[in-house]
Amino acid sequence: MSALTQALPEERLEAGRALRAKVPRKSHATWKAPSNRPDPVQLLMDSDKGRIAKLLPIRYGRMSKSPFTFLRGAAAIMAWDLAQTPTTRLHVQACGDCHIMNFGGFATPERNLIFDINDFDETLPAPWEWDLKRLTTSVEVAGRSAGSRSGDRETAVRAAVRSYRERMAEYATMPALEVWYEHIDLKSLIKRIPEAAERKQSTKAITKARKKMMPSHVYPSLADSKKADIKDDQPLIYHEPKQRTPAYRRKAELSFKQYREHLLPAYRVLFDRYTLRDIALKVVGIGSVGTYCEIALFTDAENAPLFLQIKEARASVLERYARASVFATHGERVVVGQRLMQHASDIFLGWTVGVETGRHFYVRQLRDMKIRMPLDTKDPVFLAYFAEACGWALARAHARSGDPAMIAGYMGSNATFDNAIVKFAARYADQTESDYAVLKKAIKAGRVKIQDA
Fold it and tell me: CA-CA distance, 119 to 154, in Å (whole number)?
């Protein structure tokens, strides 16, 4: 542990302020594509190596819907670009794919509803400003895709960065243990929504989603309860022939045995109450499409279901530009990163390695009361409110692993840093639209195949 970490908050605040001489806050406004910038489509295609080839047209079909869906799937492109920008070199446990659709509500193990980041496939220690720049860019691009006015988009972007800056200043004065206890209560967050209609809509959507996420609702939609088989729903959920064989079953059970050893002892007792019934492939997200993802159905003695998602963990897109993961597997990297950033994580969160393939995986419950807030990017007031909540959640996550006093000291108490990030978000949104146009041309030319699903 460094001497600076043990210094008083005011000393660390001052150390953060001193960083401005090396990396002026206004410098974060800059973005201009360098002459050696790779072809964005080629960067995407490079990231396709090792993915399931027949699913790639679905990945690109989803990315081709709008500049916003493109941005969601283009974390590899933005990682290269962020590495070219000014950096404070203050590292935190970064999300790596920090856009507004990767924030939402979910239930803690105690079944309390909180709001937090909910995607960690790319998590890695990296400069804190990389996450913030991707988040604010996503707000700007989402607003553009929805047809919002420039002034409304700026208001929303500014709400995100101001919230991050002000919350980080609060965490800079709090004892470390209090920062770790800090969380964002979802119900309280909804009560603060400025518009009554949006509050009502959000409350209804969450109540409905909460019911649908319960195992009793998930079971009939995903599986035949009598046969204990997962239902095929091509091309998004399907069985490969080998998944029906005894040999595959034995290998899967060995992988789950390894996964079990990475659970806390108390949760192993719970996991041991369940028996594996079926496994199928499942297509998820945008950026993850083509990676090897499965869902597994387990049942207990009373035939009550447990659905686990087994998701491939590949090298983080940040690894080439920040630092290599210190963990033996990328599944462990994701799990540890999630536990570092989230207030509370799924009790079944763990990792394993494919017995035959050697692929790295992390495991979690499928749809464990995960609630996507009804984000209306066409409503400027709600977009700004949601962006503010995301900025808060990101600051809380970064404060757990980073030095909130140094980060807060660097950003300061006025709008200088905010103004720079607002300008960056607009400039990088232009870049995103340009890259999106390149993808559309590649599709038209037949270089990239697409499929709607």
Answer: 25
Q: 364 near 309, Cβ under 8 Å?
A: yes
Is residue 216 predicted with pLDDT exceeding 60? no
CA atoms of 195 and 188, how far apart (whole Å): 14
CB 298 within 8 A of CB 306: yes
Residue 20 tokens, joined: 């401005």
Smallest CA-to-CA distance from 334 within 355, 356, 311 is with 311
User: Residue 240: which of 285, 293, 308 has the closest Cα?
Assistant: 293
Distance between CA atoms of residues 163 and 152, nearest Å: 16
**What is the tens place of the pLDDT at every residue in 242-289?**
888 899 999 999 999 999 999 999 999 999 999 999 999 999 889 999
Amino acid making up residue 429: A
Check residue 89 and give left, alpha or beta (phi > 0: left; psi -120 to 50: alpha): left
The residues near 31 (Cβ < 8 Å, ≥ 6 apart) are 81, 85, 424, 427, 428, 431
pTM above 0.85, yes or no: yes
328's CB contacts (< 8 A; 6+ apart) are none
**Residue 292 is encoded by which pair of tokens?**
């090897």
Q: Where are the domains of the chain?
A: 9-209+375-444, 212-365
Name the amino acid, one letter, at 307.
Answer: F
Distance spanning both ends of the chain, measured CA to CA:
49
363-391 CB burial, b ≥16 within 10 A, e <16: bbbbbbbbbebebebebbebbbbbbbbbb
